[in-house]
Structures are given as structure tokens and as C-alpha cells.
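Message: I would value a second opinion on how I read folds in C-alpha cell form. Give me a protein, with the fold worked out from its sequence. Write it directly below this note and I will take it from there.
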Amino acid sequence: MHDSPDAIRTVALLGHAGSGKTSLVEALLYKGGALHTPGSIERGSTVCDSDPLERKYKRSLTTAAAHLHYRDTRVYLLDTPGYPDFSGLAISALAAVETAAIVINAQTGIEMTTRRAMAWAQARQLCRMIIVNGIDGDKVDLPALLADIQEAFGKECLPINLPAGNGSQVVDCFFNPAGESDFLSVPAAHDALIDQVIEIDPELMELYLEQGEAITPEQLHAPFERALREGHLVPICFTSAATGAGVAELLDVFVQLLPNPTEGNPPLFYRETREGGGEGGEHRKAVRAVPVPDKHVLAHVFKVVIDPYVGKLAVFRIHQGTVTRDSQLYIGDGRQPFKVAHLLRLQGKETQEIPRAGPGDICAVAKVDELGFDAVLHDATEDGNIHLTPLEFPTPIYGLAIEPARRGNEQRLAEVLHKLSAEDPCLRVEHPVGTNETVVFGLGEFHLRCALERLTEQYKLEVVTRPPKIAYRETIGGKAEGHHRHKKQTGGAGQFGEVMLRVEPLSRGEGFDFVDAVKGGAIPGQFIPAVEKGIRQVLDSGPLAGFPMQDVRVTVFDGKSHPVDSKEVAFATAGRKAFIDAVLKARPSVLEPIVDIEVTAPGTAMGDIIGDLSTKRGQVHGTRTAAGNAVIVAGQVPLSELNDYQSRLNSITGGHGSYTIQFSHYDNVPPAQQDKMASKHKAQVDTD
């Protein structure tokens, strides 16, 4: 049976590792009748953690899709990983849902990923709600947690139900505000919800404030939806996945209050057009998907799984139109359609074949090799230039040089790494210029460890790795001009090209900008691409210390040519050397990645941890308490200082400490260290 869009809800569960997202999905599936018995993380029997590595580590490592049918409504649930190393896979789920449910562990409170998940959802303009899980836990201080939530995320975060009976049940504050709570007045919570919601509905506000009329839940529904969509209200629900307390009430909230695909904020696609149909002049026109079944298809692939035995499975969300078995769909700009041989609905790793799916549905197709992450699916050739507004992912900065343990397996290693990186937008494979090695970059040590375990266990490929390399970069600190004349005469036709250019710094993170400002044909137009090519050769390996360059604008403004001897190779050489000349005059510097770090350890070790971070050029921004007399130390530290940090942390804490990192920004390395890097690079260049 195909569900109409208004009978569909799509919810991504996000939050820090250990907040209970996977257990909560099990409880929801059980309460919704999709499971006979809820699974257990300890037994490795949950629907969403079906991967062998997930069962081994007892935590989610990828986003899993599940669904249930409750009160004539189909609810799609996306269980996302909470460990920061896998945040790219959590972010990718945001393109597939109307609502982001941020799950907070009642014992540990607001953690690193909690804050980031709220920011991701807000940036994507999704409806947001907060689920406080584990309300029956020991030493839970729910009044303090509610205050922390409102301080961190705003006064618009308001309870829609409240715990009662020491966390054994919840009482309603919205539909039927009756009963008593353990820590907050139910009528007061109900009034706070009304006050917040009616602010965006002047007519309802007049009825309530001036005429004193009681506001019914039916009257509140429309403004509640609008308040949700606009971020004017972030409802808080209390649950316990372990006991089931609040789970039925949470399902009621999903069905009755959350937006369906026709009410939510549909993702923004854009269409690329070219001015005059020629080269350059690209323009982007916004295209908002219309969630109705009878329009042409617009769908987006937000997850790819490649199984060595089953093949590729592409999971996508339909935003517009209807996909049926035997549909002919195009992939992005491709001109050859593929046939949907089997249309699948997912329940974790299990699949169910369905005849059709429409707006709001989350489904999958298998064994279509051309399908990749972020692909747009459509059924009309004129839509080949439509793309989804891209998601912003963390920068992978933790690298390992990798090679096969046996010679002759280089091609197979490359193929397997391609498959792994196709599944994860934050797993990047590079071949740095001049190093003759393959480097895999991820978001942290655990991220790469799991990738290596997949290589050996899933693909039976033994590899050898070397210590992580730091992704240093080079940039400039000022403006300068460069000039080079390349003249070569070898008896026959010669080579001649002369380039004058200017360099200037861009803001951090802007990358590279090339500007052609040549007037009067001083450099013929056909040679300008050669000049840019020469400049880009330097970008791959900067002149100061041999690291890639970033945040530089290059303006080529003059030069000379020869009617016979000028060639592309001459202008590529002249461009490269003129760029080097300018960079070395423009206060070049080496940049290093700075990461946000959170160290969790026994409270007795806090002083030693803060002192140790200071010796690593770290800055501590604050501390807060955690469950079990633990403390969390938050700050920033250069990534280069964290090599083998876990061993150091084990020594300080007796093996009871852990840490997470996430890329923050690039900053200049200290002058003494930069001088060493420059000297080492110069010696290597002189030797070569």
C-alpha cells in the first residue's frame, strides 16, 4: 500500500554516542507494532545496528533506516551515529527528513554532538525537537537538565510532556494537560506552550489574552506546526527506552504534531543554466520540490552501502513524484536511464519489495553501480542539471598512509578504498603529489580504525599503515607581484612565454581564485589556461614547505608572447615560476589544523589533564561535570600535538579517560617549527 504524503512522518534521531538513539528506535518499533520483541544492543539484536562492527563496538557506525505504521501514519526513522568520527553520516540524513529529533541522555546531559546536531538541524531549517531519554536512570536531575537545555538552545525549548512516578511514566502537557509531574507544574508547562505558540498567530493571541478564551489542542495545531517549522518552538519529550515510559506518547507527538512532507520545509534544489548557452556565465536558479505524487520525480540519494556479496544499495528520499517498479530514472546529468527492477523499503538491513513510493517515502534500489552518494534521481531529461543544495561536512584531517601487505594488490586496494569512500562523505582517499603513496583521511583515529577493519574483515585485504600525517597547508600573509620570462632555444623551434601576476590572501577557507586581467592580448587568450595550469601545479605543493596552498587569489595582469616560439608549455612554466616568485615575497606561512577536543575523565584527573593540554599548545575553554563523578574538559589543540594522545591520557587517568576531536580551523604554526619545515623542504628539493 502506498501512503499519501500527509500520512507520512520522517524523523532523524541525532545526538551524542550513548544517548540511547538505537534503543529508542527499538522501543518505538515495538510500540508501533513493527517488532514482536525489542532487540538489545548488548545481544547485538537491534534492527539498526546490524553491521558486524556495530555489534562488536556496541555503537552505531552508520545511519540506518527503519519504519513503522501507527494510527494510519507511516513513520520513517533514521538512526544516526553519535560518535563524532562518524558525524558525516549523521549530517547526510538531514537531507531526507522533515524533523530532527535530538536525543539527550538524562544522566550525561548536553554533550559535544548534542550541540552540533542542533546547529546542523537549524542550519538546514528543519523542524527540531528534543527527546530526553533515560528518565528512570540513577542520579538524574531533570530540573537542572531542563534549565541547561533552555540555556544552551533557547527559551523556545519547552516540555510537551513531563516525567512522573520517578520516571516510570510521563504526563501530557499539550493534548490533555492533567496529572502531576515530579518536578514541574503541568498547568504551568501547558500555559508556557500556549504562550509560545500563539505569538505567531495574532487572532489566537487576541482570543486567549483579551477575550480569555481557552485554547484547544485543535486550535493550537496549525500555529504549532508553523512554530515548529520556523524554529519558534522546540518541543521536549521525556522517555525511557529501557522501560518504555513515554514511548507511546512520543509516537502520538510524531503522528499528531510533527510536519508531514506537505507541511515541512522541503529541501532546496537548484538548476544550473548557462548564459547564452556558451562557456562560462553559469547561473543557479532555486527549485523547490513540490511534494505531490503526480509531478515528475525528484529524489535524492543520502546513503550508499556496498556489500561485497550483495553489491551496491542506494537509499534515497523521494521529494516529488512517484517511483514505481519498472520506472525509468536518470541519475544527475546522465543521459542513459536505469530501470528500477526492485523498489525496496528498509527495516535495518532487511528489505521489503514494494510496488510504488511517493513524496516522503524513503526507499532503496540495489545493484545500480552508477548511483552514488548525493545523486539526484529524476525521470525527465530536462532535469539533468538539477542538484540538491549541498550539505556542509566536517573536514577529514586525520590521515594514514596505507599500502597492501602483499605486492600486486595495489589495484585491489584502490578499488576497495573507492568503495569505502563512496559510502562515507568524510572518508577521503588522496595521492599527494610527489610522495608516491596513498593516504586515507578521516575524522579521527576510530574512524580510520573501522575503515581498516572493514578492509581486513569484510574484503579480506591485509594492509600496512604508517603513523598519521598532518594535513598542513600553506598560504600567504600579504600582497606581492611576481614575474618570470621563460625563454628556451634548442636549435629548432624555441619556447617563449612571459607572465606578470599579483597574489593576495583570501579569507581562511576560501580556497583559490584565479583572475584573468590581461588587456590588449599581451598574453593571447589560448595561453591563459596554460598559465593557470602552471599556477595550480604550485598549489599542490607550495614553495615554502611543500604543502598544498589555500586561500590565495592570483591575478594575471600582463605578459609577453612570441608569434612563433610561444607555446602552452612555455606559459605553464612562466606561470608556475612567476607564482613562486610572488608567493615568496608575500609573507608565506604554514598552516596547521586546530581541533576542538573534549576529554572525559575522572574528576580527580582534571588538573593533570588541563596541565598536559597546556604543554601541547592547547587552550582550555571550559569544564563541566558528567555522570559518575566524571569531568569533561573542552578546548582546542593543534592536531599535530595529539599523536599517541590516548596512551598519554591512559597514563594520566589509569585507563579511564577518553577524548573526541573535530576539526575547527587552520592557524599558523609557530615560527620556529615553520623554519624547520622550510629548511627540510629546501634540503629535499636540493637533493632531488
